[in-house]
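Fill in residues.
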C-alpha cells in the first residue's frame, strides 16, 4: 500500500509538470531556454532514508553525474547490516546492494525523470536448518549453517526532484520490476538441505530459487555540487 501511495503521489506531480509544459509544445526553442538553475551538469550525492526501514536494514548512499541537463547516470550503494524480521532465526547478517539507473529528464523543468534500473543484492547470515542424507537415511535437525542470498532484478522507475534550497533537493521515486532470488545453504558433506515450506510476511521462508515482481520506492535527500 505504501508503494502505491508514493507512486500515485509522484504521478500527481508529473501531471502538474506536464500541464506546465504544454504551452511550450509549439516552441521547443523557448522551452529549452528555460533550463532551471538547479539542474546543471555535474555531481550530486545523497542518502536513501527508506533503506533504514527495509526488512534487511541498510545504510544507502547515492551518487549521480549529469552529462547534460536531461541525461544522467545514477547509482546507489547500500551496506546491509541487520534483519528486521525479529521472528527469524538469523544472526550476523551482512551484505550489500548496488543499483544503477541511466536517467532521462523528460520535461522542460528537468525535474521529472524516467529510467531503467538494474540491481544486484547479496547478503548472508547464520541460522539453522534441517539436512537430509538420503543414502543412510539420516536427518540433521536444526543444524547450524551459513546461508547466502543472491538477487538480481530489473525495473522501470519514474521520479521527481524537488528543490528545497539552492543546492539541496528531495527526490521521490517509484516503479515496478521483476527480480530473481537464489538461496544457497552451506551443507554438510553428503547431506542436502530440507527446503522449508515457502511463506512470506513477518517470518519468511524462501525456496532456493524464486522470481517475483518488486516495487522499488525511494525517498532521498540530495546535495548538488555545482
Amino acid at each position: 500500500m505504501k508503494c502505491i501511495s508514493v507512486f500515485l503521489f509522484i504521478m500527481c506531480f508529473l501531471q502538474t509538470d506536464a500541464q506546465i509544459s504544454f504551452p511550450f509544445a509549439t516552441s521547443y526553442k523557448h522551452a529549452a531556454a528555460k533550463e532551471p538553475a538547479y539542474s546543471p551538469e555535474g555531481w550530486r550525492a545523497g542518502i536513501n532514508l527508506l533503506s533504514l526501514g527495509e526488512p534487511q536494514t541498510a545504510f544507502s548512499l547515492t551518487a549521480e553525474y549529469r552529462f547534460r541537463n536531461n541525461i544522467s547516470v545514477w547509482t546507489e550503494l547500500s551496506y546491509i547490516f541487520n534483519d528486521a524480521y525479529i521472528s527469524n532465526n538469523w544472526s550476523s547478517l551482512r551484505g550489500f546492494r548496488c543499483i544503477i539507473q541511466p536517467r532521462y529528464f523528460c520535461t522542460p523543468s528537468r525535474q521529472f525523470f524516467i529510467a531503467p534500473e538494474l540491481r544486484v543484492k547479496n547478503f548472508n547470515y547464520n541460522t539453522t536448518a534441517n539436512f537430509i542424507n538420503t543414502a543412510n537415511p539420516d536427518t540433521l535437525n536444526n543444524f547450524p549453517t551459513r546461508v547466502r542470498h543472491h538477487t538480481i532484478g530489473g525495473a522501470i522507475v519514474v521520479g521527481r526532484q524537488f528543490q528545497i534550497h539552492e543546492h539541496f533537493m528531495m527526490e521521490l521515486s517509484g516503479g515496478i520490476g521483476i527480480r530473481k532470488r537464489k538461496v544457497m545453504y552451506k551443507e554438510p558433506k553428503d547431506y542436502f538441505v530440507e527446503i522449508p515450506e515457502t511463506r512470506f510476511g513477518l517470518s519468511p521462508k524462501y525456496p532456493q530459487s524464486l522470481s517475483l515482481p518488486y516495487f522499488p520506492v525511494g525517498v532521498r535527500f540530495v546535495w548538488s555540487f555545482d
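DSSP finds two helices and ten strands in the chain.
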